[in-house]
User: Fold these one by one.
Assistant:
Number 1:
Amino acid sequence: MNPEENTADLVARFDFAATLARIAEEVRDLVGQGKVAAYIPRLAEVPADRFGMAVATLDGRVFEVGDAATPFSIQSISKVFTLTLALEALGGDLWKRVGREPSGSAFNSLVQLERESGIPRNPLINAGAHVVADVILSSTPTAQADLLEFVRARADNRAIVMDEEVAASERDAGFRNAALANFIRSFRNLDNPVERVLDFYFHQCALQMSCLDLARAFLYLANRGRCQRSGQSVISAERAKRINALMLTCGTYDAAGEFAFRVGLPAKSGVGGGIVAVVPNALTLAVWSPGLDEKGNSLAGAAALDRFTALTGLSIF
Amino acid sequence: MNPEENTADLVARFDFAATLARIAEEVRDLVGQGKVAAYIPRLAEVPADRFGMAVATLDGRVFEVGDAATPFSIQSISKVFTLTLALEALGGDLWKRVGREPSGSAFNSLVQLERESGIPRNPLINAGAHVVADVILSSTPTAQADLLEFVRARADNRAIVMDEEVAASERDAGFRNAALANFIRSFRNLDNPVERVLDFYFHQCALQMSCLDLARAFLYLANRGRCQRSGQSVISAERAKRINALMLTCGTYDAAGEFAFRVGLPAKSGVGGGIVAVVPNALTLAVWSPGLDEKGNSLAGAAALDRFTALTGLSIF
Amino acid sequence: MNPEENTADLVARFDFAATLARIAEEVRDLVGQGKVAAYIPRLAEVPADRFGMAVATLDGRVFEVGDAATPFSIQSISKVFTLTLALEALGGDLWKRVGREPSGSAFNSLVQLERESGIPRNPLINAGAHVVADVILSSTPTAQADLLEFVRARADNRAIVMDEEVAASERDAGFRNAALANFIRSFRNLDNPVERVLDFYFHQCALQMSCLDLARAFLYLANRGRCQRSGQSVISAERAKRINALMLTCGTYDAAGEFAFRVGLPAKSGVGGGIVAVVPNALTLAVWSPGLDEKGNSLAGAAALDRFTALTGLSIF
Amino acid sequence: MNPEENTADLVARFDFAATLARIAEEVRDLVGQGKVAAYIPRLAEVPADRFGMAVATLDGRVFEVGDAATPFSIQSISKVFTLTLALEALGGDLWKRVGREPSGSAFNSLVQLERESGIPRNPLINAGAHVVADVILSSTPTAQADLLEFVRARADNRAIVMDEEVAASERDAGFRNAALANFIRSFRNLDNPVERVLDFYFHQCALQMSCLDLARAFLYLANRGRCQRSGQSVISAERAKRINALMLTCGTYDAAGEFAFRVGLPAKSGVGGGIVAVVPNALTLAVWSPGLDEKGNSLAGAAALDRFTALTGLSIF
């Protein structure tokens, strides 16, 4: 980015269609590499050779390449949506129950939970998402429907669903999550029954969305908390900024430092192979490719984001 | 920040003198609170009631308030300077010897070193700075003089010195650092004698600089790696961006997440009570007040940075 | 113990009745001190001022003092019984699924489980007992009845029961155990459903036995694995010796070193306030007093064992 | 051991010469296996195919097989001698500065030191031995000479020396120990300069003794603290018993549970390949073979001890 040019001008000028096409070409060799998440059958059967990417700008344009319209299991990306809802429900008191520091270890580690008496390090690791889910469950009797409604409104797509088969499989394979939730409960940092918290959590992970859906749905975080269509406030500008900060420091498991270093954008990844990134005041990006690196992030997806910031100069640093 | 306005315009328009005066007023009650670092006599005798702040913009202006011209012990802030030198000396190979992830625990923890076989989590914790010091020592026979020269050039101030009494006291009190360095050496991740590495490290910590010095000295990181006066490259734009990313994720001990969340700027703090922050493509900020919070960051200094981003809207998120 | 005198002679000669009376007198001031386990109502309502102690010798004599005939919740002491059954069921293969080293941390820590991939450090911590329970469940369709039958036979008392109210309360409060079991299951080191393992585990903890019952029931471990009445083998001499070794190194949570140091006998404690100790080739001791020290062992009970070995000279060291 | 027979009778009757010969035969295939400690040249050059074993009984007899008269570097076995001296110097106050619990992790781990604020878990790990060395250094100006005198008197051999070349090599390779000692010093749990503590520690490790020396030198621990020749007290019976308890729970690094389980005797091992074990009220055993297992204990030595207790029935359990 030329410092003499502001971001809005740059976005207006930039040929994102050509950029996405070029990136798809450049990362082609990585697509199909890495390991597709196999702990539940439904995820394991996703073809490894998929790649899609979408960009949505604040001025309403959308660009795409490859499988950008194919819905996939967003998994941990959903933690950004639930964090938004929990912040609206509980306000700053949420931070009494969950921290804001990077975890510095594997995404489902129990160690830090024990050292820190059941206060998860941040809301974007599994343990933190359980607390966030618990907060939402305490604030509304229709938590699951509310979340679905929120996501559909953000993405402007009524066809978005939660995949019940994925949710059921998560439950059957979710011993680690059951361990975490029971552990947090033992420190009295969950108010709702463990089964209910896990059921909600597994359903949020089972949201099926495409890159196009995700790029659109995250635009409020690039737009100081406002809906890019109506201009109405989804969340305060302050909170939008802070969610972006959390994504940057904690959004990609134990590779957050590496992501900030290479990509330089707030981002959230999921084991379904999706990653969403935000360029504040400018645009959102979503990428999907199912093969994961050893830290659980999409291999081709991370490379694509890296190329995007290199080609466009768009980075927060 | 109004999204329709670019940062350069904003900086040109903003009344930083008034902003700094207002901040000094607002944080006045915090000045003198917290604990002054007392592990070495020279630091312990610094009066707790000091507060200074400076802003330096890319267009060459400098603003200040309070004790902004008083030199203090920059301590860990020096890690950004040595990282810059080590990156120039070794290039990307540096990352084989030190990681880029937040440490997720106290800044001088030995635990993670053990788990990760002597590879420090990042170059901005003490262990990482030892490796960085070792790299510099292997690259030049005049490491200490080179560092001093580099810092004087960046700050445009030939009067900057290293306080020998502080360096000697650090050595006498530095059992934790000696433990770290010996531990890293046991994993063969130091090439130079432990005593030499520590001697260099204790001297870098003993650099005496004022807020004005620091704000000027960090401008290359706000300016894509270029000197703001000569326009010459200090470090590549890519590396400048990446050092900023490291400061954001790892620059303030175990409060990096909190800093990103509240302040939203790359920053590096030291136990002398200084903190430097960078607004990419715009300006740098340095603040100093000796009283520390329980995580080792300046109490009034952190509050002042918080107020600065709140008042100006300048944040990377 | 006089080295010229053998243990059998000593036991025959010693006035255990007087010794127990003296001990009860000496520890009187400690009875009622410490904290009664309060995580389930049934345990919390046990009067703190109880103290009982019993000695059973290989030649068939039994001595007692105080509340030695009062049944109490044996809790973790049951782990010795289930270990015996699991060793009979699976033999040495048991040690592929659970270790034999002291845990060096709190009795229900999840940290080591994670570091050691779901292999609990030893069978006398909660995690290890879950694996032991799983082994028994896989070996018999009537695990709970078999355990009860085994304990009744060992103690020669058909009146021994499992307290269903305690078992139900354990389940309702057992989030930490549920976390542990789910965590082990996530490493595939449990074959049976988590709920079934926990149900069996909570029932074994709910066994109600008196000091007299426990002293009698442990005699096979003092008698090289043989029943002291019939002479028939309960377990091989080799295994009896090894269970004793495990009790010494791992039987009293994170105080095993302290117990070996002060008492010098293999012992197993429970949060119900009971402790059983073994003098190989000589006798068993059981003591009960509900007030616990900060490591979860009976305060007056530990002191009573300490006095017993001091007064009699009976120690394995 | 037949329970009707006392230990003294058994020892008097047993043909230890034949037993040792048989054991040497049985473990022959293991001799030369494992890895010889190679971190210092002097240790690395010891031929791997050595095996020696000695038994010393309280009634003054000594039995041997193989290389039982060859001096070797006793390394960590020396910790038992220094613990004895420190207990005499400081009494029970020693336990304010070092714990008595198994460490549950690798013998030179820094993790637990950090968690427990510089109080080593027990005196038989390296960190604990540093504190013990510090206590001795504070109690006498001739610590090294006193230790040598003590060991020569116990072994009744004036020819025992400390190998200066080994001590010097330990110092040159001892980064891990330097890390530990500096770390403990940072918690103010060392009073003497780190260099002095390490110098003494490296010299104690460099004691050269044979199996015959060690078996004789440990007899006071089998004899309730008394010299087997003069009958004079070396240490109180209480302390002798407690040192034995510490050896059982902490004497063989992270294999103490395994040793108690398989061998069932208090024992202390060293990376030089030696292991000494105590049968209280009966005898001592020393074995040496340089090849180590993955936990740092002599491979053939551990097997030989295992066979000894299996063949003789001598075990404390």
Number 2:
Amino acid sequence: MSSSLLLSPHDLRFLLYEWLDVEALTQRPRYAEHSREIFDAVLDLAQQVATDHFAPHNKYSDAHEPTFDGQRVHQPPQVKAALEVFAETGLLAGGMDESVGGMQLPHMVASACAAWFKAANIATAAYPFLTVGNANLLLANGSPEQIDTWVRPMVEGRFFGTMCLSEPQAGSSLADITTRAEPQEDGTYRLFGNKMWISAGDHELSENIVHLVLAKIPGGPPGVKGISLFIVPKILVNDDGSLGQRNDVVLAGLNHKMGYRGTTNTLLNFGEGSHCPDGRPGAVGYLVGAPHQGLSYMFHMMNSARVEVGAGAMALGYTGYLKSLAYAKERPQGRPVGDKNPRSPQVPIIQHADVKRMLLAQKSYVEGALALVLYCGRLLDEQKSAESEDERAQARLLLDVLTPIVKSWPSQWCLEANNLAIQVHGGYGYTREYDVEQHYRDNRLNPIHEGTYGIQGLDLLGRKVTMRDGAGLALLAERIGTTVEQARKAGDEPAELGERLQAAIDRVVTVTTQVWGYGDTEAALANASVYLEAVGHVVVAWIWLEQLLAAHGKEGDFYDGKRQAARFFFRHELPRTGPQLDLLASLDRTTLDMAESWF
Amino acid sequence: MSSSLLLSPHDLRFLLYEWLDVEALTQRPRYAEHSREIFDAVLDLAQQVATDHFAPHNKYSDAHEPTFDGQRVHQPPQVKAALEVFAETGLLAGGMDESVGGMQLPHMVASACAAWFKAANIATAAYPFLTVGNANLLLANGSPEQIDTWVRPMVEGRFFGTMCLSEPQAGSSLADITTRAEPQEDGTYRLFGNKMWISAGDHELSENIVHLVLAKIPGGPPGVKGISLFIVPKILVNDDGSLGQRNDVVLAGLNHKMGYRGTTNTLLNFGEGSHCPDGRPGAVGYLVGAPHQGLSYMFHMMNSARVEVGAGAMALGYTGYLKSLAYAKERPQGRPVGDKNPRSPQVPIIQHADVKRMLLAQKSYVEGALALVLYCGRLLDEQKSAESEDERAQARLLLDVLTPIVKSWPSQWCLEANNLAIQVHGGYGYTREYDVEQHYRDNRLNPIHEGTYGIQGLDLLGRKVTMRDGAGLALLAERIGTTVEQARKAGDEPAELGERLQAAIDRVVTVTTQVWGYGDTEAALANASVYLEAVGHVVVAWIWLEQLLAAHGKEGDFYDGKRQAARFFFRHELPRTGPQLDLLASLDRTTLDMAESWF
């Protein structure tokens, strides 16, 4: 696998250095030890390890998915071997503080590094990146002792982590979980229940697995207000850090997925009596933070996980784009329009307008998504390092608004990119001899997990743009307005596209007010998914205008390509939002009015 | 598998009897032997056989795809068993003339019967339906002797057929095929070459396989004008009809596909010397019709095959819709908007607006596609049985225009329906424990085979709407105008939707003229795929208005559902065409202007 088929190093560096100016962060105390040379070195390291150790078994572990013999999970040995190399790089803790053994890299850089692994092998990469989320939650909410016991081995790559939210009867509806945690005299808890859809829930890739589990302490408030968070390890750890007894967390079964096959996805039973630590029933759990506050802790992790889902969708879209581009340059087929001479040689299919359309659409989706993901990384960096509390709070607010979009937009449009990558390949793209069909299957998970597309729509329209009297949407509009102002100053094409973007965001603001102005919550939220799609396109148009400005006045193929992709997005994509916003403005009730018996 | 999860018998009967009035055909000589009772009986038979013999092994043969041991192809025995039951029904020749052993059913009815098998198991159904296309081509262009030798055993279910067009170096570009056919003294030919992507190209499901092969006779004209058509059987047939020597057609390998796995897809070698009939090299072939006319014969078959592809896409979309509907009615999750009480019971997810949206969108796609497919069947019936030559010619012309649409529209939107069916299922939909992920994988083939989406766009914009001074588009607009006139007379909602449809088709006509008015063929065709998508949506809006009129004034859940789906299509779907037609009217050159080096 050539690394040139995973991501574009040129594009990454353009975004990081020419657009987001990550180097400027090295002026801030948190990142003062860093430099462009260090950033380049870790990016190169990520590219090399991803290319040499993750990409080669991507297809193999898809074709040889994990199996469970009733006792143990079996996976191809390449998975564990790759993760061992990954652990040695220290990249798992790339974004974490030096105080816990991390590199304290800017999130932008850590995110760009992570993208290489996701593009190379999303299923193998899931194990460490789930672990990062787990560790970050404990760093934010765990006790010093918990951090010492559980996070340190994660940073070293010895323990992996999971998040256990869903249950068979409660997928998206966490209020309805029934796993219970019974307090013990020694301050620990014993957990009983079943968790569904737990990624990396069992395997033999690490010495131990640290589950973060949502459960209810009996007697607590009903619904989401009674949810607490627990550390429940697969294997208990002794006081000296060595592994102790087996805890009563048992794999009940593996789910067999369409894609993403290399990541085990599990149904776990807690406290069903297969193992009884110290002879007593229940899986041993340790409360994180205060009782009944579990959901807010988990949402801290969940929000990061949502950005990660978008990043994964982007990475799959990106590699599929590059592979279809390489194919289109090599595959001769047909002749230009107007050349009817069958004796003239066939041309590479990239010369056909419709193939260019499919490539340019992919480019606009995947480069737009990468830029959006890195922009969200920048907002995390601002939260951690901006000088004033006001700047930090603004970054937090803007990321809050963008989270459902950065989760959903790549999940939709980079999946569409994979769809187009197959189409560019023709029949070959439909076969497992080529890579793109796997990317398409892998990517189909992303609109589902960590909150479905519909839930993200409700989050955006029902919460994010309304909270604090619409301060989040106002901030987004303000930031877009700033970009438009820069575009005006640049004149010419940026100015023209800027006017179109201004009109689009103005319309979003107006329609948002209209939708809520009717005073009918049910109707307002009925088309929340359409709202999410429309606002996502406006946001990505903004991100494209930002890229256009970063390329402005620069010469060369790369910059010409950025300009043309920006044009494509404004001409072919942004106009889609018109009818969507019209529909929303009309407070359309077509779906609400559909009676169940009419189906 | 309950048959209620494959297709809706109610919908089929509504379309056939209440809308298309298939009973009226029994007044015509060709169908005079038939009656509604007969139609109902064959529809019931198809439903029963599809449900009992095709659906049960759909998942199994996906998980156990065909294997090739170098000598023989192995498939699960259920496939052959199902095809034997199918042969007994006589449905393979349902639409064929009684003179060749067919039932001489209206195409509408034969198509509705076929839909059951496609919904139940598209991969197993492919074998007989490819055979039907093969047989129809020979009935139209073969000699009486050829028909006797090859078609009769196909009608009896003993021989299956293929179509061999593509080659490894020539997928969509048939001008570049290199398979050659050398004339022999006895009037037969010997073929040499390789054919790629041949569905059902090898198997042990039938006694023999009849390949229809495009090849070039040395010395003929270059390009497509030098292509001839040959019958090349896997096994030669003796004068008495018994099987003779093995012909030199050899399976070089199976393609391993993302979906549609139960249908073998093959690379075939002709005349490579594995078998040499009568000790001489080459695969024995028999010329069909005149030399160098092969492509026109093949396109006769190809046009039917394109309708069939659309029908298959529809069937997969339809069954996915019904399965997600059943799931949504049964799966409790969450509470209505505004009910924050966690002690209230969870509701079935069908009560959530966004789930209704996903179901209603599916309904509008799959019922729209089924209606379009049956309408095309009606046009075939008109071609065969209309009283005047003028009516027959009009039906032929309209079907010519609609062929790229009926091929492509379901391939795009019923695939999207499958996407939504997965989404309705949430995580379960992503697992192979449920059916919908397979439908999605199976359906992804349909935008590729029998002419890719891009090629259909070129066919529609570059040929079908321009041929004969735009007579085809004018006829389409006239038929739509007739429906709009009926809607005006019906008043109220039909009239209102009719005005919107009239505006849409007027815009299509105007934009078509504009696109060609610039005198720039390359630019005119650059966005042909966008044109195909826009015109497809306008056509399906018309088909929905037709259904609305057929339901007009009728009471009951079924008719209410039709009305609501029509509303959905006009409110949520038809407006998509606005920006698409704007783009076309601007003769957008964004893709054309993208240089290869800019990617």
